[in-house]
Amino acid sequence: MPQGELDALVDRLAIRIDPAKRIDPASQVARALVSLTELRDPTRLNPACVELVHRVAEAGGALAVGALPPALEPLLARGLMFARSVDNGVELILPAAYLVQLKSWEGEDPRGMRSLLSQASFETSSAIASHYLGRPATPPIALSLEPAWEVLGDPHRLAEELQKLSPTEKRVLEGVETEGGEVDTEELLELEREPLRLRTATGAAPCSFPSTPIDTWCPPKLAPLSARPVTTSEPLDAKKSVPS
User: Fold this and answer.
1) DSSP per residue over 47-88, as a string?
2) pLDDT for position 223
């Protein structure tokens, strides 16, 4: 992000930059952005903005359009979406740290990786982030999860991760997939003890796995929390800007 645009964003959102902190100003801005309440409570946005956010999220965090849609302007102003020029149009960007926070919406696969991760507990998210960071994750966890998305979005790197699993872990994953991709906690424990046999259990918390087979499980590659906003003074045509 050019320094001038970063400074303008800081002024609009009244973000306090502390020069005494060890992290640089851009990192301080990123921490402030992932804490915006609109990410967890979309009702604060108008319906057109919410729809655009969902459209970009469904595209994996990056959506190419022919022109800037009108609903983009308030999102750009709040730092909730970014845009950059590409051939024959503009690419709208939702950073990975935003995507993992959005609440699931009607029409989204409830067992998709993005939806499951957004519903994960703090402890689960921290464990995932720590694994891919190679060190204990620190808040905000949404930022710490970005390295995980980079691996999960790369088929080759994901395959390498699966190869590192122990035989027991592989059997558990295969057993869960055989059972339809979803078991509750007691069934998961039983499966770990005896991978080829599941017993019925009720009243336990459900454990879900992504709905695609584990050998092909790979969410779309997501954008990091850095993209250059695009501004324009030209009239915008909403019908032409966001393809169906």
Assistant:
1) HHHHHHHHHHHHTTSEEEESS--TTHHHHHHTTS-EEEEETT
2) 45
This prediction has a pTM of: 0.71
3-state secondary structure of 52: helix
CA quadruple 222, 224, 230, 231: dihedral sign: positive
Q: How many other C-beta atoms lie within 10 A of the C-beta of residue 242?
A: 21
Sheet holding 82-86, edge to edge: 62-65, 89-93, 82-86
**Which candidate, 72, 105, 104, 74, places its Cα nearest to that of 91?**
72
Where in the chain does DSSP place strands (E)?
62-65, 82-86, 89-93, 182-184, 206-208
Closest CA to 33 of 73, 75, 79: 79
For residues 227 and 93, the answer to whether their CB atoms sit within 8 Å is yes
CA-closest candidate to residue 156, choices 221, 227, 225: 221
Alpha carbons 180 and 175: distance in angstroms, whole number: 9
Which strand (E) or helix (H) includes residue 27? helix 25-33
How far apart, in whole angstroms, are the C-alpha atoms of residue 127 and residue 160? 19
What is d(CA 228, CA 6) in angstroms, rounded to the nearest whole number?
A: 9
Q: Decide: 72 and 92 in contact? Cβ < 8 Å.
A: yes
pLDDT in tens, 42-57: 888 999 999 999 999 9
